[in-house]
Amino acid sequence: MKRREFFAVLGGAAIPWPRAARAQQATRISRIGLMANLRLPPIERFRKALQEIGHVEGRNLVIEYRFAEGREERYPDFASELVALPVDVIVTWGTPAAFAAKEATSQIPIVMGGIGDAINTGLVSNLARPGGNITGFIALNVDLEEKRLELLKEVVPHLSRVVVLGNSLNPLNRINLDTARRAGQRLSIALEAFEVRSSQEVEGALRGITQAAPDAVLLASDTLLLGERKQIVDTMATSRIPAIYPFREYADVGGFISYGANISILFERAAGYVDRILKGEKPANLPVQQATAFEILINLKAAAGLGLTLPASVLVRADEVIE
């Protein structure tokens, strides 16, 4: 082969390489870390929302799932694992997961998919401009504790004693309790706290509540308890104790009444934040947004089992009545 022909062939062979490189660059794989207690419906809503805006698992997206499964002491290790990979964004559900992520990194963006309160817990100091590497969405559960007690008083005749079931390891728990106690004083309701630290302690707490025989139970907004929702709901039904819950997932498994933000909607909005961050926006410039729509779900079968007849004033306010 002549020298000129050799270099012509060599040059021709080199042409596909830049094209392949460009194609590889065009299909960059994004990696998201997600920490939550369990794979509940809001997680699926988040994944589908990402898919709808072009981030598809198995094509241009990898989601590193880390589920605590009732052992919230695992979150710090999960966060360290995600930072070491590293991931492009960390998404959290619940206060313990958000704190673990914040303590693990000041560089990787963090999006709180759903949290009860970000200001009073100290996760951020300003909602409009959170600064740092963390932003996300608030369910306003602390502000709703008083409204949940008011709703209980409407549906449970002669309500005077209420047990609050919470997770003592959740930084939000003390804030929720203080809010509920202030509301209880105003409404002339005595409150007693039952607390757990893991899913293994829930059964014992439920036995204690049954023995205490309160007029009603207020469930704290906590993902560990949410993971035990079927056991909690069934115990309340068997013991004939009315309970009000913070998440619709309780009503979906037979819970009497729930009042709170729809967490699935918050996670859908969180997918939009993740998309913007992956495209170059800084979490410090994305405001922490608060839930704007809250829903009351009432399970009439559960009400009948409790021997309660709900006033029309409550039924007309319900966003969904489960027959």
Record the SSE blueprint.
Blueprint: H1 3-14, H2 16-26, E1 30-36, H3 41-52, E2 61-67, H4 75-84, E3 89-93, H5 95-104, E4 110-115, E5 134-138, H6 141-155, E6 161-167, H7 171-187, E7 190-196, H8 202-212, E8 216-219, H9 223-227, H10 229-239, E9 243-245, H11 248-252, E10 257-261, H12 263-278, E11 289-290, E12 294-299, H13 300-305, H14 312-315, E13 320-322
Parallel strand pairs: 1-2, 1-3, 3-4, 4-5, 5-11, 6-7, 6-8, 8-9, 9-10, 12-13
Antiparallel strand pairs: 10-12
Helix pairs in contact: 3-12, 4-5, 6-7, 8-10
What does this molecule look like?
By secondary structure, this protein is of the alpha/beta class. It folds into two domains: 26-140 and 263-293, Rossmann fold (3-Layer(aba) Sandwich), CATH 3.40.50.2300; 141-260 and 295-322, Rossmann fold (3-Layer(aba) Sandwich). 45% of the residues lie in helices and 21% in strands. It has 14 helices and 13 strands. It has a seven-stranded mixed β-sheet with strand order 7-6-8-9-10-12-13, sandwiched between helices. The protein has a six-stranded parallel β-sheet with strand order 2-1-3-4-5-11, sandwiched between helices. Helix 3 runs parallel beside helix 12 (263-278) and helix 4 (75-84) crosses helix 5 (95-104). The protein is elongated and about 60 Å long. The relative contact order is 0.13. Mean pLDDT is 91; it is low at 1-17 and 19-24.
